[in-house]
């Protein structure tokens, strides 16, 4: 009987505290949590390998950026955005797009796709 009570207690405790771990960003006041997918393009390259390498470098640079610089780079800087809580979620990826420039040469553009998590002020109503 004691084991059943312990198991029920642990289950109840786990279920009530699971929501605390689901949202790593603490929001106080009138802030709401937002997630968006943003795409950053890098300079055109002459080969797909070079485009992938440049995009990978950009992805690593984004992962190392502080929150306020990440806001500016990903164009999240608005008056209603909290500038100190922005961070990238896991699972960023890279794609390369082939295109032809105006002189008829093929170019390869690396695109970095990231999911960004930030806080935005809700209306004051």
TrEMBL record:
Keywords: Signal
Top-level taxon of origin: Bacteria
Pfam families documented for this protein: DUF3316
Key word Signal present: yes
InterPro entries given in the database record: UCP028299
Leader peptide range in chain numbering: 1-22
Protein name, as recorded: DUF3316 domain-containing protein
Source organism of the structure: Vibrio plantisponsor
